[in-house]
Write a structure and sequence with these properties.
heterodimer, A: mainly alpha, 12 helices, B: mainly alpha, MetI-like fold
Chain lengths: 317, 293
């Protein structure tokens, strides 16, 4: 058991280091790179007054190390700073955008797991036959398509030509659950890529496991095909799939940003893009830290789950 | 599992051909820009209509593929060029600390979602096309370097390398002559899958307005800017969106089919490479002797 414990300890340490690195990287990219950040942030026509105001607000006259220490200390206390543009605390921005994004992400994950596993198992069951070839080709094709291109095409067909679904979520504010129809397109687009990768992962894992000696041995013992498939092969496909599921968080994140922009959903992605456009550094930093830490934590969880299911497989940190 | 799939290969080539030819040769045939018409009109000499500032959509389509394709190719090449020496050095070095020094920071960087990295940099700096290449390449280096290291670490333990070492070949010749060469297929495979991901990131960044002018002739920018007129003049959005779908889908199908034919194990291209302790890394003992010519 000491092997397991030391693995968990090492993985947790890596998670802590990754979190620290995210914080450092966010700071370095937005504040510490060479050049006068105040001039860059003041916009396309930097007038001296605005530059001075930015410098004052971000306390750019002080050394970078000191600012980093202050900022990181604030983060530890949950203080994310205040917006340069509106003067509101960054945590308020997060609170405003959190609901819609969480709703989109939760709906997507809830649908993603059965859809991905279902398609993967279906393809593995019919490996090499038409059903498998169809699923494999379609998942391979859709997997590569950027969300925005798929999204506008779906809007054109489903909203414009057929009039089945509303094209955007404009006018519903954050009350999205009261209008489920506006959620269909965003969730569908968000699902498109992760479902494909998950299904491919599950399929490959199950085919590998079904071809393995222990599956053959189980069959020789007369264990039923269904039992070999679901009690023996599926758990082995689970480890890579769990990791893939966590990796898709990276995609879900970029997907959420794009989908919210595309369908005018007032979530965190919209807040982030707005802040990027206005060069509102504290808001961008706060959101980036939250997104980055979320990714670290989910990857950590997935690696631990994967290790639990298949301890021998070298788990990529 | 090793059945070649000529059908899929042909399908990939067919799908990717249209956007690729348009992207590479389009600008040659585009001709001079005509006078601007009203926004979002159709007909009147513009057979795909006009865009949000009244430019001819067909002409923009001819021009708009090149930036997407060239940026993606440049970023993929750059990422591989950086990842190759880093990964090789980490795999071949005798010094554990050097390997840790090279790989640990990349492990940590892997935690940052790529689009977030691009958006973060875009907040303070306004990256042009070159900046976008750098950013997208940077987002891809950690993963690529890890793959190179894993593949090289596996190749190093092969009997042939052992034999070369016994013959007294220099480390440099082993690294370049043998390990590098035996990696070429893995690397080509990785570059192919990476190109798909890079195309995705480049197009998405351009759609979000990073690294491009707001009125640039770029398929992704066209989709974004002409969305306002989707109800009046859908062609200005649908045609570039379809071309992007064809480009990304076709690339992925093409490389997957190509890989399938060259693949010698059951391992999928998307599978994580086995580490040095993995199933690929064991050397049978009898190979230590008897390979002398």
């Amino acid at each position: 058991m000491s092997g397991l414990r030391s693995f968990v300890a090492r993985r947790l340490l890596l998670g802590v280091l990754q979190t620290a690195a995210v914080v450092l990287l966010v700071f370095a990219l937005t504040e510490a790179l060479p050049g006068d950040a105040a001039v860059a942030l003041a916009g396309d026509q930097p007038d001296p007054e605005r530059v001075e105001a930015v410098r004052e607000a971000m306390r750019l006259d002080r050394p970078a190390g000191e600012r980093l220490a202050d900022w990181a200390a604030g983060l530890l206390h949950g203080d994310l700073g205040t917006s340069l543009v509106s003067g509101r605390p960054v945590s308020r921005y997060l609170a405003d955008g959190f609901g819609p994004t969480l709703l989109l992400a939760a709906l997507t994950v809830v649908l993603l797991v059965p859809a991905g596993f279902g398609l993967g198992v279906l393809a593995a069951r019919h490996a090499g036959r038409p059903a498998d070839r169809l699923i494999s080709s379609v998942t391979l094709a859709v997997y590569a398509v950027p969300e925005f291109a798929l999204g506008v095409l779906l809007v054109t067909v489903l909203s414009l030509r057929l009039g089945w679904l509303p094209p955007t979520a404009v006018g519903h504010g954050t009350e999205l659950l009261a209008h489920p129809a506006v959620l269909v397109l965003p969730v569908l687009v968000l699902l498109s890529r992760p479902v494909c990768s998950l299904a491919r992962m599950v399929r490959a894992g199950m085919i590998d496991a079904l071809a393995s000696p222990y599956a053959a041995q189980a069959r020789r013992y007369g264990v039923s095909g269904a039992r070999v498939r679901y009690a023996h092969a599926l758990p082995n496909a689970l480890a890579p799939a769990a990791q893939q599921l966590a990796r898709t968080v990276d995609w879900l994140l970029s997907g959420v940003i794009v989908v919210e922009a595309l369908y005018a959903v007032p979530g965190l992605g919209t807040v982030l893009l707005g802040a990027v456009a206005e060069r509102d550094v504290p808001v961008v930093q706060g959101l980036a830290v939250v997104f980055g830490v979320l990714t670290v934590v989910l990857n950590l969880g997935a690696d631990l789950v994967a290790h639990r299911f298949a301890p021998r497989a070298g788990v990529a940190a | 599992m090793r059945r070649p799939r000529p059908g899929r290969f042909a399908l990939g080539v067919t799908i990717v051909a249209v956007p690729l030819v348009l992207a590479l040769l389009g600008p040659v045939f585009a001709g001079e820009p005509g006078p601007r018409a009203a926004s979002f009109t159709s007909g009147d000499g513009h057979w795909l209509g006009t865009d949000f500032v009244g430019r001819d959509v067909w002409r923009l389509v001819l021009h708009g593929g090149r930036p997407v394709v060239l940026t993606a190719l440049a970023a993929t090449a750059l990422a591989c060029l950086v990842a190759l020496p880093v990964g090789l050095a980490a795999a071949l070095t005798r010094h554990r600390w050097l390997e840790e020094l090279l790989m640990r920071p990349l492990d940590v960087l892997l935690a940052v979602p790529s689009l977030l990295l691009v958006l973060l940099a875009a907040t303070v700096y306004s990256p042009g096309p070159a900046g976008l290449v750098l950013l997208v390449a940077a987002a891809n280096v950690p993963d690529a370097a890890r793959l190179v290291r894993a593949a090289a670490a596996e190749a190093v333990t092969r009997p042939a390398v052992e034999a070369l070492r016994l013959q007294g070949e220099t480390r440099w010749r082993i690294a370049v002559g043998h390990v590098g060469r035996s990696l070429s297929r893995t690397l080509a495979a990785d570059a192919g899958t990476r190109l798909t991901g890079v195309l995705y990131l480049v197009a998405t960044a351009a759609f979000l307005g990073v690294g491009v002018a707001p009125d640039a002739a770029d398929w992704a920018v066209m989709v974004d800017r002409n969305r306002a007129g989707l109800f009046v003049q859908p062609w200005a959005v649908v045609v570039p969106a379809l071309l992007i779908v064809a480009l990304t889908t076709g690339t992925n199908l093409l490389f997957d089919a190509a890989l399938d034919e060259g693949r010698d194990g059951g391992r999928g291209a998307a599978g994580l490479p086995a580490g040095p302790g993995g199933p690929g890394g064991t050397v049978p003992h009898h190979t230590q002797k008897g390979v002398h010519p």
